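This section describes the prediction task in plain terms. A model, or a person checking by hand, is given the sequence of a single protein chain and must write out its three-dimensional structure as a string of tokens. No templates, partner chains or ligands are provided. The sample shown here is typical of the held-out split.
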Amino acid sequence: MRPYQVWLIQDLIEKNKRVFKIPVYQRNYDWGDVQCIKLFEDIMAAFHNDRKHFTGSIVYIKGEHNYSGLDEVMLIDGQQRITTIFILLKAIYEKAIDLNETRIVDELKDYLFNRNCAEEYKLKLKPVKEDDKQFQALMQNDFEKLSADSNIYKNYKLFIKLINSELSAGLLLRDIMEGLKRLEAIEIVLDKSQGDDPQTIFESINSTGLDLSLADLVRNYVLMSDENQETLYEKYWLRLEQTLSTENLADFIITFLNFKMSESVTQNNAYIKFKQLYTDKKYTNETMLSDLLHYSKYQALFIGKSNKYSQRINEYMLDFRLLDQSTIYIFLYSIFDDFENHVLDENALCDILEFFRAYCIRRIICEVPSNSLRGLFKTLYRRLFSEDTEHMYEKIYSFFVGLRSKDKIPEDLEFKQKLISGNLYNKKKVCKYLLASIENKNSKEVIDIQDLTIEHVLPQKENASSWVKALGEKYKEIYNTFLHTLGNLTITGYNGELGTRSFDEKKEIIRTYSKANRLNSDILNQPKWDDVSIKNRARNLAERIMEMFRYKVPAIVFKGLSNDEKLTFDDMDIAVGKKPVSVSVCGEIREVSSFAEMLTTCVLLLSDLDIKIMARLANTNFKIKYADRTYITNDENLLRRPKEIGNTGIYYETNLSAKNILQFIKELLDRYGLDREDFYFTIEKEK
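The expected answer:
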């Protein structure tokens, strides 16, 4: 690797017979107004202040000369700046032609075009795919082929405008050129033959993560070092982008990694975990891309980018989106694999989707915390179907009805009571979904849920005069008890708000404008709106919801699938002498075979959440309550059996009894501000 301090225009751009090639693993050109205006202002400031301006590093892989002596270099870092400079040079070039500035025109030809080479190598920049077509069209003045949505064309028009503004203020084109010539850069030339590793250097340059998205980093990782990168790009990555679109790739990659790995994967650690998965599972670039493309077709269905399956399946997946239940996707990857491989037929698949739709709705309505869902769905398939895939629906049903933890499926009585008396308005997504579902049931004219707002019959504004008068001395009690409950809520499709109007006025608006006839029939039939009316309507709607979102009870029910003999910190004495089987921390469930492994699992999970807290504990040589020995430290010599957290230089003690391990974990949860109830473990059942 050889770094040089250079002039961006005179040393890099002007050099003849060199093409800056942007490899396919780079992102598309995406600079907009903000970046281009800032660059132009820097150029003009450099001119006015008669000083140089540093633009950063330009990193490229040393190219090989072809038969004509042309040098093709692969840009690793700096493509956005280089592309923008070429667009600006083109804008100045065209303006110079208009003004008959022949000297500037001749000078710019040397910046924009290679001399004495084949026509295909005339342009000094070769962007990625669609950007290349737009760049060539711009350079050839083929404006019919330019897209108004192209950043290349939009930035060209912007630079023309900025140049005209400077000329109107009395400056000359050569003044702008002088500013350009004051741009400095660090040129970093990589030479693979000398052992330079482009991937390592690329990651070092972009270690802040400010410039590149997760999708950018993954694409670079699997394409940068591959000799067949263009083939892999066309065969896999381009199709991946077309399947999901670029804005959905990061969420997909995180879901894919959570599906593939037992560890918790978040936005913050996703790229590290991706490289870990790639290495641990011995992927090649092509097998990783193939795997990503395979599961992207399911993700496309889940997020509404594909309708390749039947209407029934598509509607179930729409329901999960409307309910914002994307955590289940980790589990559904395996289920849809089974469907594609004919392990499941469509009826069995729909039974499973119907069950989980009901399960998610019931959890939300019954206010079961969602923090355990990801861990539940990460391990569920393996827990139920590791031995065989017979009776899949029956096993799913048996597992959830057999649970005694908070992850059990809420029973009918609890569900109905919460529907009737719970604060449904605060659960706006499920509230709107349920109200719209009641109205749209067996309806030819379906109301679009996106266009609806939730309305209160008894108004939200307290002490509305007409309502205080109508309800009398019971007003305060009714308002506090029933305001946000199912019986008092509706959707109208009416553009205005019902507001604080009287009940008779609201009925007239609903009767005249509302499209939600089924939902509002119980309101229109009432002479007055009080606690009795609200409760009666709530019971009626709750019955309809329960009927609509029932799930199939199978003929076969398996016993013992739940295996949820869960122990907590209160069960330390019971745990002594037993072998742990699994541990759950904040919804992340992991299999373990010893208490030492349980400790390591918990320490790593918490470190993934926030390593800074662990570092602070290490700085204080952390000890648990009533202990003389150190438990977390930066000095491994203070521990009897130290274990390091990754390569952080933070060590923790592992030579501990089961009770001390549980006490250690408990105090760590306290330091992290986590609820102790979010921890449990299971032990091996006695034979």
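For orientation: The mean pLDDT is 88.
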